[in-house]
Amino acid sequence: MLVAASLLIGALIGCETAPHSNSGATLKAAYKGRFYVGVAINRTIAMGAAVRADNVNRNTEQIIKDTAVVTAQYNQISPENDLKWQMIHPSEGASGYVFGPADAYVDFGESNHMYLVGHTLVWHGQTPNWVFRGTNMPPGETNASIAAAPVGTNAPGTRGYGRGFGFSGPRASREELLERMRDHIHTVVGRYKGKIKVWDVVNEALADGGTNLLRNSPWLQIIGPDYIAKAFEYAHEADPDAILRYNDYSLENAAKRQKLITLIKSLQAQHVPVMAIGSQTHVSVSSPSFEQEDAVLTDLETLGLPIHITELDVNGAQGGQSNTSGDVASNAATTQGGLVTDADRKLADAYAGLFRAFIKHDHYVKVVTLWGVNDGVSWRRRGHPLLFDAADNPKPAFDAVIRAATKQEAKSR
Ligand code: XIL
Question: pLDDT tens digits for 263-288?
Fold first, then answer.
C-alpha cells in the first residue's frame, strides 16, 4: 500500500521514483543528445482512468505503475488512439468533436515536459463513415449494394476495418470531402498549436504489394491522389511551426520502401511541406537484423528528411515471423502460434541490433517511439513485443537497449 502510494505521488508530480533496471539506468538518459525515446500511451495513463480500446483493462494499481514507467523512462509521447478521427471527431459538425481524452493527453505531456506527437490526421483506419458519406452515387453501385452498406464506423471488429473498404453507398463529392478534411485538420491542429510539435499528417497511404503506388482508400477514390498534398497544406496553414510527418509501415520491405521514396520525391517536387519520414517499424524477432535496418535507414536518408521511428515493437509470436506486415488487418494472424523458443533472448538481440542501427544513423533518426508501455497493453500483446513485461518489470531487451547506448559511448571515447 505504501509502495503504491509513493508511486502514485511520484506519478502525479512526474518525478522519477521508479528506476527500472538494477543500475537505475533510463532510456531517456541513455539516449540523451541522440534522439528522443518515446512511448505510445492511452487514456488510462493520460486520464488515470481504467478504460481504453482493445478490451485491455488495467486496474488502478497497474495504471499507477504503468504511469511511473512512462514518466521515468521516456521524454516523448504519442497518443495510441485518442487523436484518431474516430475518437476526436466521431460525428459530423462543430459539435461532433470530443476533446476530453486528447486534452488530457496534451496536459499529461506538458506537465511531464515531454515532446508531444499528434497521431493521426488522415488515415483509412479508425475514421467514421460519415466522413465519406454524401449524395453522389458511386459508379457501379446498386440500391441493393447501398442497402448492404455497413453502418457506424470502421472500428476494430466491424466490417472493413483496417482495409479502407468499409464504406460504400452514396458518397461525398471531392469538394465536400476536402472541406471536411480541412475543417478537421484546422480544428485539431489549431487547438494544440505550439503544444503538439509533430503531426502524422497522412498515415499509410501506400499500397501493399502490386504496382499501384497508393492504397485504394476512400480518400483516394473520392478526392484523387492530391488528397495527400492537400492534407499537408492544411496542416501547415494550421500550425506553420509543426513538423509534418508522412507515416507508414513495412518500410523494411524494399518494394514498399521504393514506393515511399517515389511518393515523397513527388511531394517534394511539388513543394508540399512534408518534413519528416515516419517509419512505424512493427517488426519481428527474425528481422530486420542490424545490417538490414542499417540498409533501410541508408535508403530513407536519400530523401534528406529527418527519420522518426514511430511505432516500434518487435513481435515474438510465431505467427509474426514470416508475415512482416504492420497492417492492422493482419494483426490477429501475426500474433498467433505462441512465442518463438528462447523469446526473451531473441527479443533482446533484435532490439540491440535495431538500436545500434538507430545510433549509427542518429544524424537522421531524431525520435524513436515504442508502441506501448508494456506487453500487457500492447496491440500485439500475444507477441510480447515490448521492453517491459505486463507487470512493468524491465525485460532483458530493456537492458540490451541500455547497453547498446553505453557500448557506443565507450567506443566513441
Ligand atoms: C493501433 C492501436 O495500437 C490499437 O489500439 C488500435 O486498436 C488499432 O490501431 N498503425 C498505426 C497505429 O498507425 O495507429 C495502429 O495502432 C497500429 C498500426
Answer: 999 999 999 999 999 999 999 999 99
Is 146 inside a domain boundary?
Answer: no
**For 188-243, how does the pLDDT look when each residue is reduced to its tens digit (9 = 90+)?**
999 999 999 999 999 999 999 899 999 988 899 899 999 999 999 999 999 999 99
Specify the pTM: 0.90
The CA distance from 303 to 258, in Å, is 11
Band of pLDDT at residue 327, cut at 50, 70 and 90 = confident
pLDDT at 399 exceeding the cut of 80: yes
Whole-number percent of the chain with pLDDT over 70: 84
Q: Which of 80, 204, 233, 252 is catalytic?
A: 204
Name 17's Cβ contacts closer than 8 Å, sequence gap at least 6.
6, 7, 9, 10, 11, 68, 72
Q: To which H or E segment does residue 389 belong?
A: none
Residue 140 maps to a domain:
no
Residue 380 lies in a domain: yes
pLDDT > 60? residue 20? no
CA 413–ligand 1 middle distance (angstroms) = 40
| Residue-number span of the structural domain to which 308 is assigned | 2-133+174-412
Query: Catalytic site residue 293?
Result: no
* The total number of structural domains that make up the chain: 1
Q: Which three cell numbers stand for residue 237?
A: 496553414
How many angstroms separate the CA atoms of 112 and 106, rounded?
A: 10
Instruction: Give the burial string for 2-30 (b: 16+ CB within 10 Å, else e).
Output: eeeeebbebbeebeebbebbeeebbbbbb
Compute, in angstroms, the gap from residue 150 CA to the centroid of ligand 1.
21
Instruction: List ligand 1's pocket residues with C-beta within 6 A.
Output: 53-54, 80-81, 156, 203, 280, 311, 326, 328, 379
CATH number for the domain harbouring residue 333: 3.20.20.80
204 is catalytic: yes
Residue 21 included in any domain:
yes
